[in-house]
Amino acid sequence: MPDPATPASRPRALSGMRPTGKLHLGNYMGALANWVKLQDAYDCYFFIADWHALTTDYADPSQIAPNTVEVMLDYLAAGLDPERSVLFLQSRVKQHSELFLDLAMISPLGWLERVPSYKEMLENLAHKDLTTYGFLGYPVLMAADILLYQPDFVPVGQDQQAHVELTRELARRFNQFYPRAKAKNPGGILRAAQVHPLYVLPEPKVLLTPSPKLPGTDGRKMSKSYGNTILLSDPEPVVRQKLKTMVTDPARVRRTDKGDPDKCPVGDLHKVFSSPETMAKVYEGCRSAGIGCIECKSWAADSLVKILEPIQHRRAATTEKQAIEILNAGSLRAAARAEQTMIEVRSAMQMTLTTVAPA
């Protein structure tokens, strides 16, 4: 197991998810499956962002802790390996809050108000009072989450690029105010210092990860807020039942109507999960009305169950206690690496007291 206090020979990647409940296929294909692959080539840090959950669920945080355990079980079930990645809980690493406060002091209000998802989330969550400092400032907390580990890359989908760009802007602003040249360099030479001798907070790059179109059972984007998800932990009968109710090509009103898989949400699932042989049968049967939607959905369910089976097997082999122990151990490792950065940050900001010898 690599020591987080030792400079890494591989590029570092970091990402995380909010604990809003058990993860679904959209989470898996949009992030988790790619994270698992990154473990072979990157020094990976993956976390559960429980403080971020408070930005929208501050009025009732009772589900954050149990949801955290569920997300951790899904992380492990998907194939994240604590021997190859640092898996940790945001709130267990107090340096996140320290760097968040430091960055908040230099964050222009206009930068936060222009974040694309800010107004969008205000509209989508109109039933909640989100006129809070915490919600407005969540991109700053996100920047702290990233910059604290001085990563080279942040694996995200295209919809998250704006957040990473704001992180880069905040890193640039911090480095302008507090260049490394002003630091006393008490922590020795670190990997990031060797690459960026003038900057305490190097600007991370976006690592765009493939995110296939994955519709929910109602045809919209798969999302917990829409109630249209297929969970990684859904047993086979539940998966098949959900697929039976899934919307299809509106042109197929009757069994004898011809359809088009390219215009059907079930067809989109086939494109992601089914074999070329199954896809050929889907295109031929749907366009000729040789098969009905029930049969097509059954084939899609077969493909989903095949993907989910090993994930659920790994999930069943891990207890909640084991998941929490892994999370605690990973948080200690993350804190050790985070403190390296904060030593540099405090020194660059001249916030470190030094002993003055008596006259």
How would you explain this protein's 3D organization?
- Helices cover 50% and strands 7% of the residues.
- With 359 residues, it is mainly alpha-helical.
- It has two domains: 231 residues, Rossmann fold (3-Layer(aba) Sandwich), CATH 3.40.50; 80 residues, Tyrosyl-Transfer RNA Synthetase, CATH 1.10.240.10.
- Strands 1-2-3 form a three-stranded parallel sheet. The chain has a two-stranded parallel ribbon with strand order 4-5.
- Helix 3 packs across helix 14, helix 4 crosses helix 8 and helix 8 crosses helix 9.
- It is elongated and about 95 Å long.
End-to-end separation = 49 Å
Rounded to the nearest angstrom, the radius of gyration is: 23 Å
Mean pLDDT: 91
CATH architecture of the largest domain, please? 3-Layer(aba) Sandwich
Report strand order across the widest sheet. Answer: 1-2-3
Segments where pLDDT lies below 50 for 5+ residues?
A: 182-195
Instruction: Report the biggest beta sheet as strand number plus sense, adding barrel if it closes.
Output: 3 strands, parallel
Tell me the name of the CATH class of the largest domain. Alpha Beta
CATH topology of the largest domain: Rossmann fold
Structural class: mainly alpha
Q: Domains counted in the coordinates: how many?
A: 2
Determine the CATH superfamily of the largest domain. Answer: HUPs
Strand segment count? 5
| Strand proportion | 5-15%
Shape: elongated
SSE succession: EHEHHEHHHHHEHHEHHHHH
